[in-house]
Structure prediction request, 391 residues.
Amino acid sequence: MSEKALSEERQPVIIAALRTPICRAHGALKHLPAHQLLAPVFRALLAETGVGGSELADVVIGNAVGGGGNVARLAALEAGLPVTVPGLTVDRQCGSGLDAIVLASRLVASGGGVYLAGGVESISTAPLRAYRNDDGDPAFFSRARFAPDSVGDPDMGVAAENVASEFRISRDRQDEFALRSHRRAVAAAAEGAFDREIVPLDGPAGTVTADDGPRPRLTDALMARFPAAFVGSGTVTAGNSCFDADGAAAVVITSLARARELRVRDALAVLGTETAGVEPRFLGIGAASAASLLLASQGETAGTVDLVEFNEAFASQTLACLDSLGIDPLRANADGGALALGHAYGASGAVLVTRLLAQARRTPDEQKLALAMISIAGGMGTAALFRYARL
Prediction:
């Protein structure tokens, strides 16, 4: 997809992006199933943009561990959208939310229209999963299989250790990066950087208005006390790994021509996207492979990108990818990332896009290149490149 090659009727642009608070699984949002996390975001997006529900061509939503049944359609109806608006649920595990936006952008490029796209995860309400034994009794399992035994299917933490070892990412660097993520998120929250992108949700203890993950009292000394979490002599700990979270994020994506008709003030134009596969034992490096292909296809380099959002599932994989791409870690995730905010699986890729639009708007008179990247279970990665501009 090339920005230059597309007319205004086919150039996909993101004109609004919102999210819920991201809260620890089994915490403040544990009472809300996925569709009830999403519905308030849908309503807020339509109110912000002035798009009528009947104008929507489709709702495309990523989800990784939900109960199936097409949560995109369920959330659309929960939000009060007309029954004529369909829904499509995408599963590329951790990349689902970003891949849903990618798919919607390609639908716009092929024929215009207005779409809601994003992702959601309610780990708290996700159903228990089980295989059926020969006698019909259930055999419960904690996660899906992502690769056959002949290839290797390591757990996420073990894969993070594999990346740390292969790419020589030290424990000190991982701890330093994770601590900086928390400090940046704490500072951003204090400055109100998240306020305009968050849709408050009602909870049993009152309205939930903020993320609950960032830890203001985390120090170097506390980071050093965490033991290895996955491999006995390893460097990946609970402190430099993300935590599971509940949350949702979505965008309104349409053509540049329709955006101008709606008189929106600014947008993220989708310049291009790539998804790549890598060895499952090094699954955390997938985002770097996708981003490398993407930047080359767009004639850009890491140095020309102004804003970078990477899903920090583990500090080891984040650093390995940034190193591989030649991106100074100080340039990535200006307000912290999943190490501080949490990883709401299917929502996380859409959270990256929400964060990029919010950051770009801080200096709205400047055009900016923005890059979103996420590594994915099974040895994959997705990247998307945007250009922010005033309309």
